[in-house]
């Protein structure tokens, strides 16, 4: 039996979704729906935009204004939506490859502008839809179909990237830590500016199997055991943090928001007339 | 006496005036020579009419933002030149597939690659038609004067709205940077077409459904209360993706038919001194001005020469060119490229008349005397 949340926020006739058994994306997608419902947003005023990849199929299932764009370009499309119609709550769902490889330029510039878009990166450390090639988030040394001898690239820290580019809200959680994830997405939507929430997902089919990470339960358990909250991490030694990754809120600040600043220009010019 | 405004302006500036007159409320783009005045003019004028301008991080993003805005109901435009037009192609294909009405201005410059950035060319006529992948409808208009740039920019918006498709204003550097006196008509004298909006209840709305023989679905803006899905994947009438070959066939056929079945509504052309012509020079855009001068000179010398100018480049005025081919002994295609439209003319006339070509690919314009010399060579 489906929950009330699912009935209220999803297109029931489009389910079940296409993701592989054990994929973490469904948990993250549900987290977004929960955050939207918790905030009591009008569904007609929410626009969910994605690029291309596994994560980017999510908007098709969600009962809002939904836009599935070209690879990497979700934020550029979303910028047009938000600027043309600022009253819409614009949410971008993207993957690690979509957001930080082909879409890397759009990510840093959307953050720099501080345009009021909430971006949720479903990071499964791999290109899933094309069959397991390494992404900018694949850890060095791991295997992908295009890294058969081990990946020699150094991975991006997507949160650091967004923070450095000027995002005014940045947080990370995981498919395992779903309650903080919902809280961060809510805060991201409420933040008047560019918000970036990284959701660590798991791809047992391509990344997990190739790198012998075990099944989906083991991969979730890995998230549980290796995630350290950023506040708790302050009290830990470098040795204790070895092999761990940080979750929590990294940036929560305010700065002038793009569409509001543009509206000020329009208002000023209309007074001059 | 109407309250028309007379101004001296560039083609690029007239394009902005036309866009605003047509109801443009959004511009997303990235500056590139020789199209920059279109961006600059839009940046200055749009907020004055409550519209939005944004300088995106690249040409790809400019096209994407333009589509995003169009989906909320805005009349949206972007402008670029040569290399930028290449970058926009993926998302132009998306706009065709998603049926997002928008206008793409391409002030053609010399190429390939970065070429001669400030020099004119007409090297993108084939890119306008074949630049993105797959089969999709293409409408491209090419003005020859500053006044016509104004008029055709309005028409680009109208065609985009009417047929829900991206429409290309194929300028060239000659017209883009040429200054001429133009009379801007008053708003009452400008025909404005707006996209068809759904009138049904939201729960009955089929985002890509058409009724009967209609080819263009009604379009709700995001935020209007009609929640729907837009994708670049093959989609059925609900807008949701499918792998059905039957749906793919139906969808792409309808997209193509939007233009192919309305060629007579879309195609515009100019005929000059064709009545008794035995030879016709076909030219378009800025180069057509040199062609017209050459035709006049030829007439002064008693030669029976006329001009045919496609204003609509795509769809190509096939019917008119075939009729012409059956009447005249020669068609010379004059263009600032290696023979792109000459190939199209050859394809269309199928040997009904002789087709030759005069072009230039060094960044210079063709002079009337050079075209006249070619006329004499062919005669």
Automatic annotation (TrEMBL), chain A:
Keywords: Oxidoreductase. InterPro entries: 2-oxoacid:Fd_oxidoreductase (IPR051457), THDP-binding (IPR029061), TPP_enzyme_TPP-bd (IPR011766). One of its GO terms (biological process) is cellular respiration. CDD domains: TPP_OGFOR. Residues 52-198 form the Thiamine pyrophosphate enzyme TPP-binding domain. One of its GO terms (molecular function) is oxidoreductase activity, acting on the aldehyde or oxo group of donors, iron-sulfur protein as acceptor. PANTHER family: 2-OXOGLUTARATE OXIDOREDUCTASE SUBUNIT KORB-RELATED, 2-OXOGLUTARATE SYNTHASE SUBUNIT KORB. This is 2-oxoacid:ferredoxin oxidoreductase subunit beta.
From TrEMBL, chain B:
Residues 277-371 form the Pyruvate:ferredoxin oxidoreductase core domain. NCBIfam families: PRK08659.1 (NF006412). It is an enzyme of class 1 (oxidoreductase). Its EC number is 1.2.7.3. Keywords: Oxidoreductase. CDD domains: TPP_PYR_PFOR_IOR-alpha_like (cd07034). One of its GO terms (molecular function) is 2-oxoglutarate synthase activity. This is 2-oxoglutarate synthase subunit alpha. Residues 17-245 form the Pyruvate flavodoxin/ferredoxin oxidoreductase pyrimidine binding domain. Gene3D superfamilies: 3.40.50.920, 3.40.50.970.
